[in-house]
Amino acid sequence: MAKIISIANQKGGVGKTTTAINLSAGLAAEGKHVLLIDADPQANASSGLGIDIRALERTIYECLVSGTDPNPAILKTDVKNLDLIPSHIDLVGAEIEMLQMESRETVLKRVIGRIEDVYDYIIIDCSPSLGLITVNALTASDSVIIPVQAEFFALEGIAKLLNTIKIIKSGLNPNLKIEGFLVTMYSAQLRLSQQVYQEVKRHFGPLVFDTVIARNVRLSEAPSHGLSVLDYDPASKGARNYRQLAREIIKKNKGQ
């Protein structure tokens, strides 16, 4: 049965989709069978893996709104061991369409329940909001990774996300855990980056990953080529960071 991990933060620009793509590729490089679910209407995780989102017949939208079988929506990517359920701009309207559904917070959980036995890890890229789709993702997940950028307003909005997680734990998903806080866009040369990392450590202690994601131009370039950074430039600092993160997560979850 798959370990299901959401990548969530309602603050935009924190490296959430970058982490979803490259962590998925890192886990796949370690021999794990991985499914990435793009649950963001912007569909950046889909296009970032080279998928032409204009030509899609089945996406996560149809699975959520129409209850269609998720299997036909699963695409093979160019990354060995990595599959994808893509997103579409139509997902913007899904939250309104789902409002009348029975148990609307658990729709994605039911979708994943039909395919989770096939995978070792399922990674969900959430949209930068705390709306119904993100609630669905957290309800379906075993844990959540929270990217935090190494910049001045790093902890802005984290309290609201943590409160959402607390509410979901109290009713919808009591087993939901925080997999870890991941510091992104880190620059060892900047005192501010070091201060932000120490502040996150002070607030969240052992919940902060040992791995940090360095600011790296290859991470920005890779999606324009439809590739993970591990495939675009395997020797880059970004690729090394995400391989290390994948190994840290695998080690942490051994025996669970």
Please write out the topology.
Layout: E1 3-7, H1 16-29, E2 34-39, H2 44-47, H3 60-65, E3 75-76, E4 82-85, H4 94-98, H5 107-113, E5 121-126, H6 132-140, E6 143-149, H7 158-171, E7 177-184, H8 191-204, H9 217-221, H10 229-232, H11 237-253
Parallel strand pairs: 1-5, 1-6, 2-4, 2-5, 6-7
Antiparallel strand pairs: 3-4
Give a summary of the structure in a few sentences.
The protein is α/β, with parallel strands linked by helices and 256 residues long.
Attribute tags:
seven-stranded mixed β-sheet; 256 residues; alpha/beta; globular; 39% helix
Structural features, described:
The mean pLDDT is 93. This protein is α/β, with parallel strands linked by helices and 256 residues long. The termini are close together. It has a seven-stranded mixed β-sheet, with helices on both faces. Helix 1 (16-29) crosses helix 11 (237-253) and helix 5 packs across helix 6. The longest helix has 17 residues, at 237-253. It is 39% helix and 15% strand. The relative contact order is 0.20.
Percent range for helical residues?
A: 25-40%
Contiguous uncertain segments of 5+ residues:
none
Q: How many separate helices? A: 11
Q: Characterize the biggest β-sheet.
A: 7 strands, mixed
What is the residue-averaged pLDDT? 93
Order of helices and strands: EHEHHEEHHEHEHEHHHH
> Quaternary arrangement of the chains shown?
single chain
| Tertiary shape | globular
Which structural class fits the helix and strand makeup?
alpha/beta
Radius of gyration, taken over Cα atoms and rounded to an integer in Å = 17 Å
Strand order of the largest sheet: 3-4-2-5-1-6-7
